[in-house]
Design goal:
Layout lengths: L4 E6 L2 E7 L5 E3 L3 E2 L2 E6 L11 E3 L6 E2 L12 E3 L6 E2 L12 E3 L6 E2 L12 E4 L5 E2 L12 E4 L5 E2 L9 E4 L4 H9 L3 E3 L1
Parallel strand pairs: 2-5, 3-6, 5-7, 8-10, 9-11, 11-13, 12-14, 13-15, 14-16, 16-17
Antiparallel strand pairs: 1-2, 4-5
């Protein structure tokens, strides 16, 4: 199983540098040789044919473009241990229909879900304090987005105007919806 991965050791922890496998279902190991796997490296799975990825709770970062171009990836559940979703992490994942963003995530990077044109809805937890520019650009199927942090910094300006935005009255979410012509629904 570990032959499909290239690992990099940093102090007593490891991160996955590259995936070489051909499986459509990938289970990322939590430990290798008693060393904890704490991260998924830059472009680690870029352009792979994976459909499903199982990420353990030992992972606390997903680097830039880690899953970029995984056109067959349909859904991903990010574990509670992850604190940020990097730049272009899931960009060009055309088949991605759902993503679970846990409460531990504090930021969503620029272009994180760029051209995920099958993504239908997203719930952004209260822990997220910023969403980067073009985070949801060309997510043409995105019909609903809920942002639970009333003071979330919204750098993005790219939510389709037919997308219903859910948030709190008086929030940055409401201000964004009003400015950009989106329907706003209070939560």
């Amino acid at each position: 199983m570990f032959k499909d991965f290239k690992f990099e050791t940093v102090n007593d922890n490891m991160f996955i540098e590259k995936y070489f496998g051909v499986s459509e279902i990938v289970k990322i190991p939590a430990y290798v040789n008693d060393k904890k796997i704490v991260g998924i490296g830059e472009k680690c799975f870029k352009d792979q044919k994976i459909k499903t990825v199982i990420i353990p709770n030992t992972i606390n970062f997903i680097a830039k473009s880690a899953f970029c171009g995984c056109a067959n990836l349909t859904s991903v559940k990010i574990p509670d241990s992850v604190t940020s979703i990097g730049i272009s992490t899931f960009a060009f994942c055309n088949s991605l229909t759902s993503v679970t963003i846990p409460d531990g995530v504090k930021s969503i990077g620029k272009r994180a879900f760029l051209l995920c044109d099958s993504l239908k809805s997203v719930i952004i937890p209260e822990s997220v304090t910023s969403i980067g520019y073009y985070a949801f650009y060309s997510c043409d199927s995105l019909t609903d987005i809920t942002i639970l942090n009333k003071d979330c910094f919204l750098e993005f300006q790219d939510i389709p105007n037919y997308t219903v935005i859910h948030g709190y009255i008086g929030s940055t979410t409401e201000a964004y919806a009003n400015k950009n012509g989106n329907k706003f629904e209070k939560i």
